[in-house]
Structures are given as structure tokens and as C-alpha cells.
Write a structure and sequence with these properties.
By secondary structure, the protein is α+β, with helices and mostly antiparallel strands. It contains seven helices and 20 strands. Strands 1-2-3-6-5-4 form a six-stranded antiparallel β-barrel. 37% of the residues are buried.
Length: 355
């Protein structure tokens, strides 16, 4: 993904759909408008648990391109610069645990959480997960904090109403409403893309904020937008709660998330490929001394199943292996040179990094 598209993706208020073109008397239009939910009670209930996050980071100052390779380059070497950023988060435990995006906190040297009542507290990063773009913070409140609970993202349907809350453009607690526009979106951000798409406005500063169902449960974490201008264009993406919740629980227990890993490069085979005869996964490369190599997997092998379950796409294979605890053995059904066989593979620990 090029830098421009990634900036456009990483980070939106949408009015109810206009009734333009609808004929009939005004009474009929008023009746249609009454079908929209009144979200005032919901917003009042959940906003106390939504926080604004500001960060300060310090890193090496880059050498301006015009001075690279010149005698003046040495004046920039070793200099450090500070940067600031802002995002959103939500409290999941009255004891002070807060969920946000990893790209909000990054390598911050200082993280400040601002509550809706104006109180500010310093936060520490309990743990973060770059692959799912999630981070867990901890503050030390004087008393129990307002908190919200998880809901089931799998229960959400296309067209279901949602409420997004956060800190757009640093303005503080704000809510926007919309619907679930699509599910299972892959936007090229990483191997575990499975985003909820919504037309509830998501803007810069909303990152890390919650996406609620009408019961006030968190069913997504607002993470990205698609926008040529960098602001809301009616297409926002949220990490589903069913994927985020176990990651957050792992961060709380261990401070990190461990995933299974084979050490292979994979690609999809279409149904009419003569090597498989149906949808399957081709091993395009095997990492030297990795788990797959030690088990005897080779480039050119076609993976048909994992523990007897069909594996039709590379995304399914990567996610299935990632869910296996490192050290556990799985059985891969493999097609090699026209013959099907099962290979036991001891799953390794996925190394850190975005790939």
C-alpha cells in the first residue's frame, strides 16, 4: 500500500438519508422520518466512558532531502524532534483499562487521557498489537470509572443502526450515527483485515473510539476511513468486537499477543487451477529453518485442509494458524505432485512485525 493511500485509510457526521424524490403528502414523509431511532438516551449513557487521548512522541529528526549528501547534513544528524497526536478510546473496566488503536499511541513517550468532565490522567501502555492495530492503556483513577461492555459484532446485520463516538479533530466527545454498510471488508491494511464498514462519520481523531449497537454495547473499534480528502466521505471501517475482544484480553493478561506461524508465503488458487481442482492455497515460498521447512513443506505444495477442515483461501489459512497456540501440532492436508498426503507441523511463534 502506498503512503498516500495508507494515510487516507488511517485516521467521520452523516445526516439521515434524504427523502429526495419521494412523492406523496408531507404526512407520509413525517411518518417515514419517525422510523429513525432517537439516540439521545443512548449517547447520554455511553459518552461518559469515551475518552480523548493525546500523545507526545520524540524521535530522530529526519535530514531534509535538500541537505542530504552536503556538508550541512551533519548538522541534522543526532537531532531529535517532538510530535503530537490525538485519538479516542473507551473504558472497558471501571478500574481504569482503556482500549484504543495502536496507531494512536505508537511509540509515544507520554500518553494523556481526558475524560468528558475535563479531568486528565497520565496513562501507561499495558500492551499493543500492531497486526490488529489495538492497544490497551491503564490509568489510576481515584474511584470507579464509567465503563462500557462488549457486544457481538457477528450479530450485526447490513443496515443495522450504529453510533460512533470519539474525539474528531480534537474537538472532544462527539457522536455520529449511521448504519452497517458492509461486513468482512479487506482494505489491505494487514493479514487480519475483516472490517465492519459504516457510514457513521469517522474523521481524524476518531481512531480508537467505539462503535456501539443500539443496546450501548461496543461492536467495533473505529480504525480507518477511505477518503480522498482525508476527512469523512461516508466510508469508515471498524475492527469487529469479536476479533478485538480476545486480543484485548491477551494484552491484559500478558501484555502481548502470541500467534501461531508457519513461515510460508502463500497465495490463492482458483477453482479451475489443475493443481487443486478447487479453491485451495499454494505454498509459494518456505522460510528457511521455519516451522514449515522443518516439517517438510515445499514451495509448490497445495494446502487443502487444516486438521481436516477445508482451507480455500490464504486468509483462512493465515487466520487459522494464527489462532493455534505456538508449540501445538496441526495436520495439513497437502497435494504434492498429484498425490494427497497429511503432514504434521509444529506451529511456531509469529515474529513481531506488520507482515
Amino acid at each position: 500500500m502506498n503512503l498516500t493511500r495508507r494515510r487516507a485509510l488511517l485516521a467521520g457526521l452523516l445526516l439521515p438519508p434524504a427523502l429526495a424524490g419521494c412523492g406523496g403528502p408531507a404526512v407520509a414523509q413525517r411518518g417515514a422520518l419517525s422510523a429513525f431511532p432517537d439516540l439521545a438516551d443512548l449517547a447520554e449513557r455511553v459518552l461518559p466512558a469515551v475518552v480523548a487521548i493525546s500523545v507526545q512522541s520524540e524521535g530522530p529528526q529526519p535530514v531534509p532531502p535538500e541537505f542530504r549528501g552536503t556538508p550541512l547534513e551533519r548538522y541534522f544528524r543526532g537531532r531529535r524532534e517532538r510530535s503530537q497526536g490525538a485519538g479516542s478510546g473507551f473504558v472497558i473496566d471501571p478500574a481504569g483499562f482503556i482500549v484504543t488503536n495502536n496507531h494512536v499511541v505508537g511509540n509515544a513517550s507520554r500518553v494523556t487521557v481526558s475524560l468528558p468532565n475535563g479531568q486528565e490522567m497520565q496513562a501507561r501502555v499495558v500492551g499493543s498489537d500492531e497486526l490488529m492495530d489495538l492497544a490497551l492503556l491503564r490509568v489510576e483513577p481515584r474511584g470507579p470509572m464509567a465503563a462500557v461492555g462488549w457486544g457481538s459484532s457477528a450479530a450485526m446485520r447490513i443496515g443495522s443502526w450504529v453510533l460512533a463516538a470519539g474525539n474528531p479533530f480534537g474537538l472532544g466527545g462527539s457522536v455520529t450515527a449511521g448504519i452497517v454498510s458492509a461486513r468482512g471488508r479487506d482494505i489491505g491494511a494487514g493479514p487480519f483485515d475483516d472490517f465492519i464498514q459504516t457510514d457513521a462519520a469517522i474523521n481524524p481523531g476518531n481512531s480508537g473510539g467505539p462503535l456501539f449497537n443500539l443496546q450501548g454495547e461496543v461492536i467495533g473499534i473505529n480504525t480507518a476511513i477511505y477518503s480522498p480528502s482525508g476527512a469523512n466521505a461516508g466510508i469508515g471501517f471498524a475492527t469487529p468486537s469479536d476479533l478485538a475482544r480476545p486480543v484485548v484480553e491477551g494484552l491484559r493478561r500478558e501484555g502481548r499477543v502470541e500467534r501461531g506461524w508457519l513461515g510460508v508465503q502463500v497465495q490463492d488458487l482458483v477453482a479451475d487451477d489443475p493443481r487443486a481442482g478447487r479453491r485451495a492455497v499454494l505454498i509459494a515460498g518456505v522460510e528457511r529453518n521455519g516451522p514449515a521447512a522443518r516439517a517438510g513443506l515445499r514451495a509448490g505444495d497445495v494446502v487443502l485442509s487444516i486438521n481436516g477442515e477445508r482451507t480455500e483461501t490464504s486468509r483462512i489459512l493465515v487466520r487459522s494458524i494464527a489462532a493455534v497456540p505456538p508449540g501445538q501440532t496441526v495436520r495439513l492436508g497437502v497435494l504434492r505432485e498429484g498425490r494427497t498426503q497429511e503432514l504434521p507441523v509444529q506451529v511456531g511463534r509469529r515474529p513481531p512485525g506488520p507482515a
